[in-house]
Amino acid sequence: MSLRLTRSIFLLAWLLAPAALWAARIDNVVAQQDDARVIVEFDLAGATEKSFVSLLPRFGERALAPNRLSLSGDVGLVEPGPGKRIVWDAGADYPAGLAGPVDFEITAVDVSREPVSGLLFASLAGECFEMGCGEWNEYCEPDELPVFVACPGPFALSVSPVHNSAFAAFMNDTGHTAAPPGVVFANGRHTASPGLEEEPVSAVSREDAEAFAAWLSRRTGERFALPDEAQWEYACRSGGRLFPFGSVTGRMGGDLNSPQQENSGTNLLGCEDMSGGLWEWMADDYLPYPLYTANARPGQEGLAGVLRGGRIGSPLRNSRCANRYERAPDMRDATSTFRLVRLEE
Description:
mainly beta, Immunoglobulin-like, paralog of FGE (formylglycine-generating enzyme), 2 domains, ten-stranded mixed β-sheet, 22 strands, globular
C-alpha cells in the first residue's frame, strides 16, 4: 500500500505479535492515511479485562518509540471490543515527512490490578529467548557474556515499581522499621509523603523488597517475588529490543557514554520506566553466565545481589536491557527500587 505523508512517500504495513504470546489479540486491522495523520482501526479480542495496547512505527532500523509520538485514541489501557482506533499525527512529529517504508507493530497485553497493593500486572508468556549481549550489540560488558537461551515461562510483571503508598501499608501491617524517604510516620501510622504516593519507593535493600513480596503473598494467597534476571530482561526487551525505549538494533546513533536524560516511558508490554528511573533489585545473586536456574541462589554467603535498569544521569550504555550491576543485598541506596512478579501456577 503506497501512501503519501506530507512531501514523502510513506509505505504502510503492520506486523502483529503472534496470538500465542498473550490472550488478548489484535484482529481485523485496517490502516489508512488522512493527510499527515495515520489512522489504524482494529478489534481487540480475547481479553476479559483491559489490555495494554501499543503501536510502534519503525522506519528502517529506527524504532519510533510510542511514548515519544503524538498518538491518540485506543492506546494504553483499553477495554476489549470491536471498533478500536489509533491516530498518529505523524505530521506533528515529523513535519518534513518520512521518506521510505514505515512498518507498524501493534501489540496487546492482558493486565489486571492486584487490589491489596494497587499494582497493575501485565501477563507475559515468557518464551525462550537469547539472553545476554550478543553480536547484535555495539557494546557489551564481560558479565553479559556468553549469550545463552533462557526460558522464563509464564509470569505476570508489575508494570511499575512498587510505590510509596503500598510500601507504607506493608510497614503498618508488619512493623517493618526501615522507612524509605518517601514514607513518613505520623499519628501512629506510616503514610506516603504528600505528593509522592504513586512514586516508586526508593532506598530499599533486596531484603526489604523480599519482605514486601512475602507480605503480599500472605495477604493475597498468591505467589509474589522479585523478578529473576531472565524475567526482567524478557520484559525489558519486549519482543527482541535492546533498549526498553524501543530501539530494534544495537546502533544508538549517539554516544553510549552520554547520560540518559529522561525515563524510558512505557514499552510494548506496558512496563513503565525500565530504564532511566531507579535501579531495580533482582531475585538472583550476582553469578557468571549462563545462569543455571531461575532465581539463582546457590546458598553461598557473601554473594552480591543484582540490579537492573540504569537511572537518569547514568551512562546510556547502562540502559541496555542486557546490562547488569552488582550491589550488596543489604544496601539501602537512594537509587534502588523494585517491582514484583506474580508467579503463574
